[in-house]
Amino acid sequence: MEEEPPWKKLKLSLERPYKDDNGEPLPELLDITPDGQHIYRPREDPTSVVGTRLRRIFAERGHDFFEAYKGSRSLPAPQAPSATAPDENAVDSEKPSESSHTMTPEELYKMRMSLLPQLYIAFGEMCQARDLLTLLLSSSLPSQPSSLPPAPLAATTVDKPSPILSVRAFDAQLTIGGKDKALRAAADLFKDAAEKIEDSRVAGERYWMDALKIRRGNWGLIPAPLPLGSATGKGADKTSKDFLISYGLEESPVLFRRRAIGRMASTDDGIATNALEFPLRQKTRLRVSVARTLLDGTRRTCHSHLTKPDDTSLDGALRAAQAEVVEQEIFSSLIKEASGLPTASAEVSERLIIIDAAQSTELRFELVDADAATQIPSGLEDPVCDLIYSTLHVLLLRAHTVSKRQRLSKTSISRTTAVQLTAQPPPLLQPIIDILQYQEFWERIGDEINRVATALRDAGVSARVHYDPVADSGEVLVASLEHEKTNPLGGEVLLRIDDRHTIRFTTSSPSTLTAHLPQATLPVASISQLTQLLVDEISSRLLHRICDIGTDRCEKVNGTWFVDLLSGRCVGRWEGCVL
Fold first, then answer.
1. Other residues' Cβ atoms within 10 Å of the Cβ of residue 55
2. Cβ(568)–Cβ(539) under 8 Å?
3. Percentage helix, strand, coil, to 5, in the chain?
4. Whole-number Å distance between alpha carbons of 157 and 167
């Protein structure tokens, strides 16, 4: 048989412990003072306890208590049943007969507690009756002698027993604790209210100080609309109680002017995080990307550099929000123009525009999140993208200037003339496409002319090339952007052969090439035509050079050298010889 585990052999006694581990009796705790002192029930002598209980027996149940149990005390005789009430006896016979017994102390105490309230009530009624009787006797029969004995009614004052000290102390502790908690709660409430009032005062002062800073920075302040539910009838106060900040451009469309509205934060939380709030801010930036396909087939993509604005100050936050709205307006204008480009194809989506600007050049305009816009890998930045990004802002301002000029001109001329003069604003996208196509066009021309110059050097003929893609200065280019119609870019190429002959070409954006020859000025329409023109001109220059050398060498024999334009040969004659 397996032995039971130890935990099954463990037995706990249900009797209340009355001794500790040392065999000493456990004292009974009665109360704990506020100082932390424990009050225990004092130990009682068993002999005195027995004596007290015996005295209570004789005091509460009489001196003949023990004789009653022996049968010496006579019990009242039972009454004979009455013949006139047979029904009542029948009913009483059905009830079980109660055996007479002596009440226990618990029952006596219970009876005492139930009778004391009734005795108090009876005492009060007797006092009222006594006072009433005294009043009636003194008012109705003052002259008749009283037949009542002196002091017919006597009163006895009975006080309510005082509560136990420990209970009274406990009740006092509860009362004091409750009052202390209530006072602390009230103090915290007043403290919080005072802090909120102080914060509101500081917030109000900071609110108007920030408003003055914004106005000093030349930002637009407009009256805020009335709150919902305000009275708008006749005689109502329609004065605006607040203002809004308008940071959009003046000639922007209504959609973007409504989006470019901010307000001052009027709560403590708003001041702690940011003093300005922009309800309609989308937090998107415009990123320009240019993808090129190199001769070896590799694809290289570069992006414009976007810096993270410093929005910790009021002016910085407004400038950052304004930059986002302006770039969104630029992107909206680019979407409108992308569908009607005459020299390029485009793909348009909600936040991306892809344009095949040139043969191996792809242009992208993308709205990206402001947080991710500045995270560009190193080595993927290109000045061309930054130039396009900055030029778009200049072109947008030019479009706004033209729109403002047209709007102001309508107020001084007739309506018919104004309708005739109304035209579309200057484009934003077409000048950018022309610049990229012009760059690609110059690269192809340069490659062809460099190939010819290298061949001449290999043949022993000196050749020098001078490139000037943009002939105008920077001031002239910037000034041209102020006009309604953008002037095309122009440049020139000079090819000098043998330090004597010069071939001059002029270019114009996007892809116009003109050859300036001594005998004529010819437009060049293709690369093959340019190649043929270079071959013909270089051949002619070389033949004339050979004629000059032959004339110098055959001067003593009276030789003659000339160029046969029909056959493309150099012919030399002297003393009957022809070469």
1. 10
2. yes
3. 45, 15, 35
4. 25
Q: In what order do the strands lie in the sheet with 490-497?
A: 463-468, 490-497, 501-508, 512-516, 521-524
For residues 481-499, average pLDDT:
82
The H-assigned helical ranges of 217-313 are 254-259, 268-273
Which one-letter amino acid corresponds to residue 411? T
Instruction: Give dist(CA 323, CA 274) in Å, integer.
Output: 18
Q: Of all residues in the chain, what percent carry a pLDDT higher than 70?
A: 79
Q: Cα dihedral sign for 387, 393, 394, 395? A: positive
User: Is residue 515 within 8 Å of residue 536, measured between CB atoms?
Assistant: no
Segment 512-548, tens digit of pLDDT: 888 888 888 888 888 888 888 888 888 877 777 777 7
Is the pLDDT at 233 greater than 70, yes or no? yes
Task: Determine the Cα–Cα distance for residues 167 and 172; give it in Å rounded to an integer.
Answer: 9
- Omega before 510 cis (within 30°)? yes
Chain centroid to CA 560: how far? 91
Sign of CA dihedral 458, 459, 460, 464: negative
Token pair, residue 234, equals 């006749």
**Tokens describing residue 461:** 């003929």
Q: What are phi and psi of 21, to 5 degrees?
A: -70, -25
Question: Is 446 within 8 Å of 480 (Cβ atoms)?
Answer: no
Rg (CA), the chain: 59
Q: For residues 317 and 276, give the distance between their C-alpha atoms in angstroms, rounded to a whole number.
A: 8
Task: Report which of 473, 479, 410, 471 is spatially closest to residue 438, judged by C-alpha positions.
Answer: 471
β-strands 560-564, 521-524: how paired? Answer: unpaired
Considering the entire predicted model, what is its pTM?
0.60
* C-alpha of 480 from chain center: 43
Cβ–Cβ < 8 Å for 195, 201: no
- Amino acid in position 69: Y
Beta strand 261-264 with 345-348 is unpaired
Question: Across the chain, what does the average pLDDT equal?
Answer: 79
**DSSP secondary-structure letter at 32?**
E
Of all helices (H) and strands (E), which one includes residue 337?
A: helix 314-338
Structure tokens at 473: 């200065």
* Model confidence pLDDT, tens digit, residues 143-158: 555 555 565 555 667 6
